[in-house]
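As a warm-up, study this chain.
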Amino acid sequence: MKKATLTLLATLMLTSSASAATKLVFSFWGDPAEAPPFLEIVKNFNATHPDIQVDYQQTPWSGYWTKLDAQLAAKAGPDVMFITNVPTYASRAQLERLDSYIAKDKFPIADYNPEFLAIHKYKGGLFSIPRDNDTMVLYYNKDAFDAAKLAYPTDKWKWADLRTAALKLTQRSGSRVSRYGVILENNKWPTFVYQNGGKVFDDPFNPTKFMLNDPKGVQAIQFLGDLINKDKVAPAFQEMAQIGDSTQLFSSGQAAMVMTNAARLTTFKTAPFKWAVAPLPTGPSGLRANTVGGAGFAMNANSQHKAEAWTFLQYLAGQQGQIIFAKAGGAVPAMNRDKAVAAAFDVPFKSVFLAESDRKGVYPNFAAYVQITNTMLNPALDTVWNGESTAKAALDKIAPDVNKMLK
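Now compare it with the structure written out below.
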């Protein structure tokens, strides 16, 4: 009887403790293959923090932002979130500034590359801690290259080499393309602009002038448009909505090359062919560029549990979380000055990813950029990707309006 009573009391105490735990919500996007490190972090944190229990919301990239924007506009949403375009959300007072939390708990922010941190700031304050650097590399199907008797890509490749290979690797059955030579991702075009020595704006953080319609920017955009419409070696972005994204097309053998990030390593493991990774091709003059900066973790300014949210955010973005992400191999870790984190990033083609992470190429990152992109840039670029307009005509047309918004 006494033993039964003690067992009952213990059960009641555990139940009471669990019910008294602060509940947090953590949101992130990604393909199913990208979820395991996020879930491992949540599981480990919950096991070691019985007073805080984290639930998660996973949404595909395509629907993540619509959902998050609606939640934040209603002063609701997750307590901690995976985020990009930090200045846009910080300018709306939707993200909590993290500097005081970092200083109070001596969070090791110095272990992060300062260039990675730059795009997570707004008006001098840090509003997000980066998870990774969104480093792009060139994945290529070795079997396809072998069949076409083509030499594999090297660090000497320029745009012309990419185009020549894509022309030879593209396979057609009548007017239908059965395999594209290369897949492009529609949000990566700034990298090509930088590889050509061009700029999107005069300053990516505090712009005063739109510069994409300058000759070097126009040439880069037209090069991509020609791959789609003139050479027909890459699918139009609207077409990809019907036939599959870059991950699906490459892993199924419907594309011979794709320029994308480390997150695809896990997905491509099951591809039914041999593949490898090479550095990005350079621009015509040999200039190298890549993506500097990636997604990060932020705290909702309207969270009702900020102390607990910061506890989770420290775990998520600190050494413990970074090691889990690094071991998963889905991203080049942002906390790359921490020796344990750097050692944990042990993936195929590690040297290529790390070398490409040192390239320059900060994407535009200011409060109005999302609005400019959605209302002016993307509609103009779509006319180039669709073959309706030349790059020069499309970009010259929007330049006055973009400059007016910057002022």
